[in-house]
Design a protein that fits this description.
It comes from Cryobacterium cheniae. The chain is an alpha+beta fold. The chain has 18 helices and 53 strands. Among the domains are: 243 residues, Jelly Rolls, CATH 2.60.120; 88 residues, Substrate Binding Domain Of Dnak, Chain:A, Domain 2, CATH 1.20.1270.50; 206 residues, Golgi alpha-mannosidase II, domain 4 (Beta-galactosidase, Chain A, domain 5, Distorted Sandwich); 96 residues, Sandwich (Immunoglobulin-like), CATH 2.60.40.2220.
């Protein structure tokens, strides 16, 4: 028989395009349109309604980039539209593109009395208009967000900066009228969409494929092109049998969860995210009114908090659906943060702040962590999740790996301390599914646990820019609930999915260590000022909380709960996975830098106030040490009259300038490079013969895609060593060496000094950076043979190989570290610490005379063009220190030293440590007062060396009771406290264990 499938499929496609789609609305009727253009930033409904509106017509241009236009729509639903099977809607086209629905113009529809109805977006473009004969009085707040995502060719755009975006109108109003929706025609369109999507995924020759095609042919035959409305029911009947045929017993099961990933900032500013949340959540509430089975999951307490402040009526409606179990807060974090770069305490506070809001404001505690889009996942996360009282984790981003595929979709993830959490990675490979046949087939095909598991999660709904599920998606879910040839799709909740998956697959495989994303490696370096602001803010918060606690406990001062909470929420927001990684438009990073400056001022004032209270009246020169270890004769967490250590003086030799003290001798040649660094204690040279450290290297940085996100391995192919110095001289004070050099359009000033206390060589690098698509690294070749390197992460460190034996090893050519990295061979090591950098690469290199060295390179700066064409331009500064003869404990100490400068205050006398720990392996990370404002003292600490550790913690204040708690400061079973006396608490910690202690105070005492 002649095979006419191609012609038949083309005929069916034409029937759908030319007959069914145009007939979805039987009739249309005009509305009267008036408009008011907002002068600058968005205004609330109450401010907009009283403005002067001018007549506006379809076809008119509107909206400068980032501008807002309010449209007032008036009219009435024609009385003759009172026909069964129809309903009236306002149909809107603001000038939409058919792709990327969350990245362009959007609108929010209000009733005349200010109640949000729902949103208008490219693929969700209707507003309910009431019954026949009803009046129409709707206000539409239209946001002219420029379609920056539409230029993912990574060309330069000025649209990401409001100051340079221009005044030209961005959009043309293409459609704004009443439409009479024909429900049967719309349902027919959904039938055909689902069946064609399924058919296209079935193999040729499969009877089911032929059955669907013939049913679609019968549908086309039954549909009268001159009376689509009158024959739609018959056309649907032609499809009824193939839609009713049940799925195979062995079909994969997909747990469909309504979802809308809303980036808290990205190609739009934070203020626009506030409106995106309102639009998305109102869409969801509207769908819940139509479909009683629909449930929706949304993360990020920050987004609910915005709704509570800016849209209180909408928040109350959400709250009611939360109580009903249909609107489901997930994640338990303040935002969907990056997990690579936030410090340990900051990542913990994501859960503290997030869960606190969900529990206090919405009465729920999410038990699943929801991070579908973060750029890799730190190996510290499992124990932080468990310490927050959560049980499960969902991620999707690992499907973006360039080289290696993750071997599991459902698994136990084991962190650095041995804690495991049950984890799922949906095989559909998207967090914004539309429940298409292609997506369903991909999920079933790729599911790695076939034979042992049966179910995976399907997060559906337009995401990134928000929008969420649509009525078309719900229709697709209903049709694929039990459909032959397709996986079974069942609406569910995240908790129901995880409970079921956990129950059926409790012996799931284990993935140990970090989930390193083999992509987006440039995020460790892009937007250096944002990263510096984060690092500084984290350490200022440590100081502010510590000294405020001491001032309260020791001097009776008032604890600044509200100030600290507000600052934490600012810092936590800016750890969102497109802000801290440096991948947002210029507007976002400009705002982030302003916020960090304000944070520094607020915390600086608070720290000063607390130190003055603690110091008391007097003229003694007190030094306050907020670090966990003693420095310059000052114990950690205390103040003392410090004994200053002498600075190393500079001398000249034939090889260059020499910095030396009793532990280290450093030679800096006339290029400003370190050609010798001799450890005098170990009598060992640290710089390999013929090599030079403190070497700035400049590379071409033109990734194939995702400009601000990616560093491609090919960057190494084209680069240069910056060895020409315009000046190498002794600093004016005689204790350091200053190196000046220039390259391209940029200049660098470096100052090298030896620290008298730690013996570390400290390199301060100030750069006036004006390069484009370049990567700047600072290199240290070291005479150690290291098979692996330790990199600090939250509450510990991770080891990574320095070789590239496997494809997994080779893919880690750029890695993240916090304050330090350490390389060593048995008996000897070197630590490289920093004050604001995260990107590193550490590899072995062959030496001319045989053997290998280990080269540590710190990534300082990039200059991507998209999405911010002026990223990183201007003044930048970095501190990197090199500490020789260092063990891991020394690296930990150096990391705190570089990031927590001592503070000088005149006062009455020393201030005893607030807490003392007898074993330096047990590090105090935070000291604060309890979240419940009871006055209890919270001490968070961790084992820092990766070994079992015992020690005593002695509080420096009166206390009566100690309990171990989770991160939310709820009592847990003891795991670290093994005893107590009147003075101290005995502790025993497993490697990298995180412990939170709650101490009940007996009284406020001035202990001097």
């Amino acid at each position: 028989m002649h095979d006419n499938r191609v012609l038949l499929e083309a005929r069916i496609e034409r029937v759908i395009r030319e007959r069914i789609q145009p007939a979805v609305y039987r009739r249309t009727a005009p509305l009267t349109i008036a408009a008011w253009t907002v002068d600058d930033e968005p205004v609330p409904f109450d401010a907009a309604i009283g403005q002067r509106y001018e007549p506006f017509a379809v076809g008119g241009a509107w909206g400068k980039p980032w501008g807002t236009v309010w449209f007032h729509l008036t009219g009435g639903v024609p009385a003759e539209w009172a026909e069964e099977g129809t309903r009236a809607e306002v149909v809107v086209d603001l000038g939409f593109s058919a792709t990327l629905p969350g990245f362009q113009a959007e609108g929010t529809a209000y009733t005349g009395d200010g109640v949000i109805i729902k949103a208008i977006e490219p693929l969700n473009s209707y507003i309910p208009a009431g019954d026949a004969g009803d009046p129409v009085d709707i206000y539409l707040e239209a946001a002219a967000n420029p379609n920056i995502a539409g230029i993912f060719t990574f060309g330069v755009t000025e649209l990401g900066d409001k100051a340079t975006a221009g005044e030209a109108t961005s959009y043309v109003l293409r459609r704004l009228e009443l439409g009479q929706l024909d429900v049967a025609v719309w349902e027919l369109l959904q039938d055909t969409w689902t069946l064609i999507g399924l058919m296209n995924e079935l193999p040729d020759g499969l009877p089911r494929r032929s059955d669907i095609l013939q049913a679609l042919r019968r549908m086309a035959d039954a549909l009268d092109p001159d009376d689509v409305a009158g024959t739609a029911a018959a056309a649907r009947s032609a499809l009824a049998d193939v839609l009713a045929s049940p799925a195979y017993a062995s079909a994969h099961r997909l747990a469909a969860v309504g979802h809308a990933h809303i980036d808290s900032a990205w190609l739009w500013p934070v203020r626009e995210t506030v409106r995106k949340v309102a639009r998305t959540f109102s869409n969801v509430l509207a769908l819940m009114e139509e479909d009683p089975d629909f449930t929706f999951a949304a993360s990020s307490a920050q987004q609910y908090a915005w709704l509570q402040v800016h849209y209180p009526e909408l928040f109350e409606r959400v709250k009611k659906q939360v109580a009903a179990g249909r609107f489901i807060p997930v994640g338990g974090m303040w935002v969907e943060s990056d997990t690579n770069m936030p410090g340990g305490e900051a990542l913990a506070r994501q859960f503290v702040a997030g869960k606190k809001f969900f529990m206090e404001e919405l009465g729920v505690e999410p038990l699943e962590v929801w991070l579908p889009d973060s750029f890799g996942y730190t190996a510290s996360l499992p124990q932080i999740v468990a310490a927050a009282g959560s049980r499960w984790l969902l991620t999707q981003k690992m499907s973006w790996n360039e080289t290696n595929r993750m071997p599991h979709h459902t698994f136990w993830w084991e962190g650095i301390d041995g804690t495991r959490i049950f984890t799922h990675f949906p095989p559909v490979d998207t967090y914004s599914a539309e429940i298409s046949g292609k997506e369903l087939a991909r999920a079933e095909r790729q599911y790695a646990e076939k034979g042992v598991g049966t179910t995976s999660l399907l997060p559906f709904g337009w995401g990134d820019g928000g929008g969420g599920p649509t009525r078309e998606m719900l229709a697709a879910a209903a049709r694929t609930r039990d459909l032959e040839g397709s996986p079974r799709v069942t609406m569910t909740t995240p908790e129901q999915f995880f409970q079921a998956a956990h129950h059926e697959y409790i012996e799931a495989p284990v993935w140990s260590g970090e989930m390193y994303l083999e992509f987006h490696r440039g995020t460790y370096t892009s937007q250096a000022k944002t990263k510096r602001g984060n690092r500084r803010s984290e350490h200022l918060l440590r100081e502010a909380e510590l000294w405020a606690t001491a001032a309260t406990v020791l001097r009776g001062a008032e604890y600044p709960y509200d100030v600290l909470n507000d600052v934490w929420k600012t810092v936590l927001l800016q750890q969102f996975h497109d802000i801290l990684p440096g991948t947002s438009i210029a507007w976002v990073h400009q705002e982030a830098e302003r916020n960090y400056s304000a944070v520094a001022v607020t915390l600086g004032e608070q720290i000063t106030r607390s130190l003055e209270i603690l110091a008391g009246d007097g003229s003694h020169p007190l030094t306050f040490n907020a670090g966990p270890n003693a420095r310059d004769g000052v114990p950690g967490l205390s103040a003392a009259i410090a004994a200053r250590t002498g600075a190393a003086e500079v001398t000249e030799s034939g090889a260059g300038l020499v910095l030396a003290n009793d532990r280290v001798r450093v030679v800096i040649d006339d290029r400003g490079l370190i050609v010798s660094m001799r450890d005098l204690v170990a009598d060992r040279e640290v710089i390999p013969a013929g090599e030079a450290a403190n070497l700035l290297q400049l590379f071409r940085d033109t990734p194939i895609q995702w400009d601000a996100w990616d560093i491609d391995e090919s960057y190494k192919n084209v680069g240069q060593d910056l060895t020409e110095a315009s000046s190498v001289a002794v600093t004016d004070d005689g204790f350091g060496v200053r190196v000046d050099r220039s390259f391209g359009s940029s200049s660098v000033v470096q100052t090298l000094r030896l620290n008298g206390a730690s013996g570390a060589l400290e390199i301060h690098t100030a750069i006036d950076w004006h390069e484009s698509q370049k990567l700047l690294k600072l290199a240290f070749p070291l005479a150690v043979h290291a098979d692996r390197a330790a990199s600090e992460m939250q509450f510990g460190h991770v080891y990574r190989p320095t070789h590239a034996n496997t494809s997994w090893d080779a893919a880690r050519f750029e890695t993240v570290a916090h304050r330090w990295v350490h390389v060593g061979e048995p008996g000897y090591g070197v630590a490289v610490a920093n004050d604001a950098s995260y990107g590193h690469d550490i590899r072995r290199a062959a030496l001319a005379g045989g053997g290998t060295s280990t080269v540590v390179r710190v990534s300082l700066l990039r200059a991507p063009l998209f999405p911010d064409p002026v990223s990183d331009q201007g003044a930048q500064e970095f501190v990197v220190s090199l500490r020789v003869g260092a063990e891991i404990a020394d690296a930990v100490d150096e990391g705190y030293r570089v990031n927590l400068p001592l503070r000088e205050v005149a006062g009455a006398g020393p201030v005893a440590p607030l807490v003392v720990v007898t074993n330096p392996a047990i590090v105090v990370e935070a000291v604060k007062l309890a979240e419940d404002r009871s006055g209890d003292v919270i001490v968070r600490l961790y084992e820092s060396l990766g070994a079992r550790a015992r020690g005593d913690l002695a509080p420096g204040f009166g206390w009566s009771h100690v309990t171990e708690t989770d991160l939310l400061e709820r009592q847990t079973d003891p795991s670290a406290v093994i005893g107590r006396s009147d003075r101290a608490i005995s502790l025993s910690l497993r490697p990298f264990q995180l412990v939170t202690l709650r101490l009940r105070r007996t009284a406020t005492e001035d202990v001097g």
